[in-house]
Predict the structure of TauD/TfdA-like domain-containing protein.
Amino acid sequence: MAEPFVETRIPQQKLYESKPFPAVISPSLPAPSLPLFTQTITTHKPYLDSLLHRSGAVLFRGFPVNSATDFNDVVEAFGFDELPYVGGAAPRTSVVGRVFTANESPPDQKIPFHHEMAQVPEFPSKLFFYCEVEPNSGGETPIVLSHVVYERMKEKHPEFVQRLEEHGLVYVRVLGEDDDPSSPIGRGWKSTFLTHDKNVAEERAAKLGMKLEWTEEGGAKTIMGPIPAIKFDKSRNRKVWFNSMVAAYTGWEDKRNEPRKAVTFGDGEPLPEDIVHDCLRILEEECVAVPWQRGDVLLIDNWAVLHSRRPFVPPRRVLASLCK
């Protein structure tokens, strides 16, 4: 094991096939400097890559990551390519370099489990979260292993899962013209497609495989799919629950959107409500929610793990970075 840091255990971890989830890395020496930490990441990249592959998520705790700029240095040290946030639903603000705010929706709202940008063809393979200001209470970012969810759903609802595998899902979201920070899916079409020009927005939507229909109020209805709801994780040789079904069905709600219409089977048939809620229960049962501490950096393999956000009492500031 690499000298400058060690794998540690925390009470919230779960064991899957005797592997801790998430893996937790802490400094082995007291008070390492940030340059030493970033240098160690670069020199021990193969080890960290294999740890992420084995565990699905790695929490770095106890390192001197004190600002958004420090966090950006940590992300850069890993050397993954950046993924621009095009086509995602969350209201976000760019902070520095490759770093932006995590979903800025109100603190009393929970954000349901999802794979990051599962509803668009180009999604990040990895994402980083960083706790700059730890929450007063709540505000965890629960994580759950996607293949475990798939296996439990297949065991309990085999016909439903077979239908999902055959037909996939269609996602429908109505966007306002501008951002609506009161909504967890409040990103307007201008910032979703990074343009003020409707023709450019249509081209960018088409590249993502989305259809755009303009509304009378100046907003846009996006129709995505049918796209697969189950993917095959080639690197781990297993099927994963790679969709935003529960998130869309239970959470895509604001003055423009009604959640039950937000996601259907690929053939347009509605999803059975009881099964969607059962899936939500499985996600909650299998998840791990580690309370944030200031300076925590959480690296998630987006192929392996879904994440969510619990409501919180402010202040809380968690920043994010997406990688190809």
